[in-house]
């Protein structure tokens, strides 16, 4: 089975899904900003921006679309690693059980590929912190802590684990004054997980580059063996 081929089929689908869907929300936001039909501002003296609720809804829809695509991407990476594990009969879940349990599936596979195949992911072309941030963002998207908003937020644990390297946070969230030790990290102040076109496409590229490199390393190991 050409695992990399199917991985790239999935990443290509993610690109198409996002680009084909986001235009509707971006067009709605643009129409509200310029006052184009059906969002021509009525006469008003109350000072509140017209169609504010419609703008917020479109912006939230754009965010949730990004969340869905990021989740699909993280799942695609996990499927690639699991299928490679099964194809090579590495039995990663058993031989590295403690890593999977304590550090998550990404680090579990990382340990397994290092110990069983002697492939060190640090030698690859990708920032492993970025891949970990992708997985952590996906976890928060799939398991939100607050019912108050559809916008996913980073958790206190993510804050500590990523050392403020919030690759999928809005620029306005990066400069918020946090003091975790003093207990000031709350769901209100926590950075939003914001997946823009740029960060999503960067994440897709990173996953493709990583899997292409890993596939070549696996082939080299099999050829040498």
Q: If you had to describe this structure to a student in words, what would you say it looks like?
A:
The structure is a single chain. Helices cover 64% and strands 0% of the residues. The protein has one domain (3-41, 48-224). The chain is elongated and about 75 Å long. The longest helix has 37 residues, at 52-88. It has 225 residues and is mainly alpha-helical. It starts with a helix and ends with a helix.
Strand content: under 5%
Structural class: mainly alpha
For the record, give the distance between the C-alpha atoms at the N and C termini, rounded to a whole number: 19 Å
Characterize the overall form.
Answer: elongated
Count the DSSP helices: 7
Number of domains: 1
Task: Give the helix level as a range of percent.
Answer: 55-70%
**Uncertain residue segments:** none
Spell out the helices and strands N to C.
Answer: HHHHHHH
What integer value in Å does the Rg equal? 21 Å
Mean pLDDT figure: 86
State the total count of DSSP E strands. Answer: 0
Main beta-sheet annotation: none
């Amino acid at each position: 089975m050409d695992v990399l081929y199917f991985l790239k089929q999935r990443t290509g689908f993610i690109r198409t899904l996002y680009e084909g869907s986001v235009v509707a929300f971006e067009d709605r936001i643009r129409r509200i900003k310029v006052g184009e039909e059906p969002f021509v501002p009525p006469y008003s003296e109350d000072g509140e921006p017209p169609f504010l609720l419609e703008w917020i809804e479109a912006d939230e829809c754009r965010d949730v679309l990004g969340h869905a695509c990021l989740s699909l991407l993280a799942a695609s990476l996990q499927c690639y690693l699991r299928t490679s594990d099964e194809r090579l009969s590495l039995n990663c879940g058993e031989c590295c059980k403690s890593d999977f349990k304590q550090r998550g599936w990404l680090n579990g596979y990382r340990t397994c590929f290092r110990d069983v195949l002697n492939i060190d992911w640090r030698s690859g072309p990708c920032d492993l912190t970025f891949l970990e941030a992708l997985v952590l963002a996906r976890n928060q998207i799939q398991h939100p802590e607050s019912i108050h908003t559809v916008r996913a937020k980073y958790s206190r644990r993510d804050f500590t684990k990523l050392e403020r390297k919030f690759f999928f946070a809005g620029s306005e969230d990066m400069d918020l004054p946090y003091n975790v030790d003093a207990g000031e990290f709350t769901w209100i102040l926590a950075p939003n997980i914001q997946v823009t076109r740029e960060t999503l496409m960067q994440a897709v590229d990173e996953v493709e580059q990583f899997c292409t490199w890993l596939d070549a390393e696996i082939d080299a190991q099999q050829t040498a063996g």
